[in-house]
Amino acid sequence: MAHFNHFDLLAPFYDRFIKPTDLSRFCKIAGLPVQGRLLDAGGGTGAKSYLLRKMVTDIVIADSSMGMLTQAASKAGLLTVRSETEQLSFEDETFERAIMVDALHHVADYRATTGELWRVIKPGGRIVIEEPDIRTGPVKIMAIIEKLALMRSHFISPVDIGASFAKPNAQVKIEIGESTAWIVIDKLAV
Q1: Where are the domains of the chain?
Q2: How far apart are CA 65 and CA 81, in angstroms?
Q3: At what angle do helices 66-73 and 6-17 cross, to 10 degrees?
Q4: For 124-132, what is the mean pLDDT?
Q5: Is the pLDDT reported for residue 189 higher than 50?
Q6: CB 3.0-4.6 Å disulfide test: which of 79, 81, 155, 171 passes with 134?
């Protein structure tokens, strides 16, 4: 059974109300600028990626919401692909960087999503997952609100997200902010 996609409804207004976090900190964490392609998985309207467009060769937004992708497609320099993050429609080792900003808790199967991010990142590449830290009070309140709004949110601790990348050639680091966590995964070349 298909679920109601809140993001199709929110898409025309999303960029007015949701503002990207500290860009300089994010670029440092993501290792930007870099020559190559960046995947913004669950990238929605492309709000964060639009700000990064001069720091990479190409940016691809993959999202399941056509409403969000319509907004992203209106921004110069962003390519869009309709795709569930649990089954990305890209070849193995396609991207030098992959980011997922405030979206992992919205997917149906976060382990499938992290597996797909790992699959599409090139050796020597980096994945950055920016998520609300469920261990903090404000995020716990947000989680309740999203449940009441019937969103399919499943907040995951930063440690559990990092553990989903337990692979011999993965180097995982977690940075903690006030109520945000950045899970940084480097795919080491073997």
Answers
A1: 6-187
A2: 10
A3: 40
A4: 97
A5: yes
A6: 155
Element (H, E) at 160: helix 158-163
DSSP, collapsed to helix, strand or coil, labels residue 7 as helix
Pure H helices in 20-92: 23-30, 47-52, 66-73
pLDDT at 125: 98
Per CATH, the homologous superfamily of domain 6-187 is Vaccinia Virus protein VP39 (3.40.50.150)
Instruction: Give the bridge partners for 79, in sequence order.
Output: 60
* CA dihedral sign, ordered 69, 71, 72, 73: positive
Calpha distance 61→73 (Å, rounded): 9
- Asked whether residue 124 carries a pLDDT value surpassing 60, the answer given is yes
158: closest CA among 139, 187, 181, 179? Answer: 181
Dist. CA 190–CA 169, nearest whole Å: 7
- Are the CB atoms for 84 and 65 separated by under 8 Å? no
Helix (H) or strand (E) holding 180: strand 180-187
How do beta strands 170-176 and 180-187 pair?
antiparallel
Q: How much is the pLDDT for 138?
A: 85
Assessment of whether the complete model's pTM goes beyond 0.90: no
Classify burial at 99, counting beta carbons within 10 Å of its beta carbon; exposed 0-12, middle 13-18, buried 19 or more: buried
